[in-house]
């Protein structure tokens, strides 16, 4: 091999080595390396709701109306919670907007309390003859509470709801009522109504139904705290929300515990 050929050979060889190193560096830079939570972090076993001591406060003041908010509490690759309002629109019942907090995996939990949900009903029936036609009137009033002694129980069901905590309440890590679930935030402050009319020869059936469902949930124009916990690293905090109206609510802030050995 002459000197010229040898120079070309070694030049190409060095370029190939450099290209391989470059590609290798690019690959490692682009790899997504999962974050493993530092199990050495220790967090307090309790906290005071609304107190900033020992907490990282994340101010948001974000309206939740047409788009959900997802929040990653512990900084890993997975979102932990989603706050969202969903419009269950139907031709018969119109718009019914429900606001939720979604715990997105088994390690994301919300503090709940159990209760027996009860639905009451008041039924009214009437018939009126007009000419050759008989009118049949059916009127049903449904409510989550007994509006009068005329209401009877229609059904009962065990359920869970977000525990309604106040500022200065104490959250305990070992509380037995932490739960991974999809939980409703608001009740329907807007009473529902449904109307139907069926016509047959010489008979007309008219049905009216009314719904009240503002029990057990957060109501408008009030600030509420939703306690949460991330299992495994035992990290607690809260979402501070406000129901603005029937259509929207606001995430004012969320707070996360600081490790005990850090400022």
Give your account of this protein's structure.
- The chain has 263 residues and is mainly beta.
- The protein folds into 2 domains: 1-31; 32-257, no CATH class.
- The protein contains 1 helix and 16 strands.
- The strands form 3 sheets. Strands 2, 6, 7, 8, 10, 12, 13, 14, 15 and 16 form a 10-stranded mixed β-sheet that branches. A 4-stranded antiparallel β-sheet has the order 3-4-5-11, with no helix packed on it.
- It is elongated and about 85 Å long.
- The model is unreliable at 18-38 (pLDDT under 50).
Keywords:
51% strand, mainly beta, 263 residues, 1 helix, 11% helix, four-stranded antiparallel β-sheet, ten-stranded mixed β-sheet
Produce the secondary structure layout.
Elements: H1 3-30, E1 46-48, E2 55-64, E3 69-71, E4 81-87, E5 97-103, E6 108-130, E7 133-143, E8 152-162, E9 170-172, E10 178-179, E11 182-184, E12 188-200, E13 203-213, E14 223-230, E15 235-243, E16 249-257
Parallel strand pairs: 7-13
Antiparallel strand pairs: 1-9, 2-16, 3-4, 4-5, 5-11, 6-7, 6-8, 6-10, 6-14, 12-13, 14-15, 15-16
């Amino acid at each position: 091999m002459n000197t010229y050929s040898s120079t070309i050979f070694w030049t190409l060889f060095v370029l190939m080595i450099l290209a391989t190193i470059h590609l290798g560096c690019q690959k490692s830079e682009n790899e997504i390396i999962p974050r493993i939570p530092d199990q050495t972090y220790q967090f307090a076993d309790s906290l005071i709701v609304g107190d900033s001591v020992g907490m990282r406060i994340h101010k948001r003041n974000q309206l939740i109306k047409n788009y959900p908010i997802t929040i990653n509490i512990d900084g890993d690759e997975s979102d932990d919670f989603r706050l969202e309002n969903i419009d269950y629109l139907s031709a018969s019942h119109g718009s019914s907007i429900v606001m939720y907090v979604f715990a997105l995996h088994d390690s994301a939990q919300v503090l709940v309390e159990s209760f027996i949900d009860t639905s009451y009903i008041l039924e009214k029936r009437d018939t009126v003859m007009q000419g050759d036609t008989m009118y049949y009137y059916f009127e049903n009033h449904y409510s989550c509470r007994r509006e009068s002694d005329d209401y009877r129980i229609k059904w009962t069901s065990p359920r869970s709801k977000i525990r309604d905590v106040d500022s200065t309440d104490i959250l305990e890590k070992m509380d037995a009522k932490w739960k991974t679930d999809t939980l409703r935030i608001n009740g329907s402050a807007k009473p529902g109504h449904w109307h139907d009319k069926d016509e047959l020869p010489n008979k007309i059936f008219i049905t009216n139904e009314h719904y009240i469902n503002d029990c057990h949930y957060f109501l408008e124009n009030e600030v509420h705290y939703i306690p949460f916990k991330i299992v495994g690293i035992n990290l607690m905090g809260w979402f501070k929300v406000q129901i603005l109206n029937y259509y929207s609510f606001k995430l004012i802030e969320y707070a996360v515990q600081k490790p005990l050995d850090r400022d």
